[in-house]
Amino acid sequence: MNDFAVQDVRRRSSSPLLVPTIGFDVGLRKYLRYGGDPRTLNETIFVSLANLSNTPAFYTSLVLGLDTRLPVIHAESLISVGSSMDKDGKSFAWYRRHYAVPNDMPIFKENVYGLPDCTLTVTFPQANSIYQYDFRILLQTPGFSTKRDWIIHKMGQHAEIEPEQE
After folding, report:
1. Where do the domains of the chain lie, and which CATH numbers do they carry?
2. How far apart are CA 132 and CA 160, in angstroms?
3. Which DSSP symbol is given to 12?
4. How far is CA 109 from the centre of its chain?
């Protein structure tokens, strides 16, 4: 094994390894189907964090970016920090949440409460429309950081969340 690979394995045993997930339900359902033909549909996007490491995350910064074309009507446990365009020309509305001891519990590997860490309630356009929205999460904790992207597809009376292909 190369020295850099050994150092990476050693770092993983002493740093948190956080993985974000999003869904349309607390169970992180990735598909949404609704009946009727409403003019608009309000739907909540649930965001959860899991720690795959035995090392707890005591101080964590969670930053969410949601496509500005998808209006947010309520953000639970998040603070709005404005909007900006990324280097690829995608426009995001940004929200953040900081976890810090002693105000918040550390993010443990064993935390499996089934409750979301935060939510965004959005308004989808007319049921017969087709749209694609970008969703981004940036996570930082001492010894670890990651960026994850998803695409929310809205097609008629169906919405789907899928990870963006790299």
Report:
1. 3-163 (2.60.40)
2. 10
3. H
4. 18
End-to-end CA distance of the chain: 27
**How far is it between the farthest Cα atoms of the chain?**
60
Question: 151: pLDDT confidence band, cut at 50, 70 and 90?
Answer: very high
| 30 — pLDDT class (breaks 50, 70, 90) | confident
pLDDT in tens, 38-55: 566 788 999 999 999 999
As a whole number of angstroms, the distance between CA 164 and CA 67 comes to: 14
Which regions of 24-164 does DSSP assign to beta strands (E)? 31-33, 41-51, 59-67, 72-76, 79-85, 91-100, 118-124, 130-141, 144-155, 158-163
Please state, in angstroms and as integers, the Cα–Cα distance from residue 34 to each residue in 124, 128, 144, 145, following that order: 12, 12, 39, 36
